[in-house]
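Thread: "does anyone have the structure for this chain?"

Original post by V.I.:
We have the sequence but no experimental structure in hand. Need at least a predicted one for the grant figures.
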Amino acid sequence: MGSWLFGCLTIMLLTANPITPHLSVFNGTGMWLALGILTGLYLLPLLGAAIKVDYGYHLLTGWLAISMLLFVMAGVPVLFSGSALGLRLLLGLITILGVIDIILWLPLALVPKKPLQNS
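Reply from O.Q.:
Generated one for you, tokens below.
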């Protein structure tokens, strides 16, 4: 749940970026669409676990890798934007916390609770 929360916060902070106001609008349709897609993709492994299918950890591993890419790419405005120091610091903190959360979850997602051969 932490990586989902950090992902949502990252998307919201990226849309509040004053450097590209014409590309991203906070509380706009694009932001809500991105948050919906992020939430939907996090619900897929939960759906797999709910119907007792062993593909959930494969989806979770792939989605954690994609989330890691989101956090790395969100760090670009932190490094190269010249204004909005508070926004840069907050975005940097959120991306660092997101990366730490993914690093903690990734070993758990890579090792299934039971092997596929026994199911």
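V.I.: this helps a lot. The two ends are 27 Å apart (CA to CA).
O.Q.: and The chain is about 75% helix and 0% strand.
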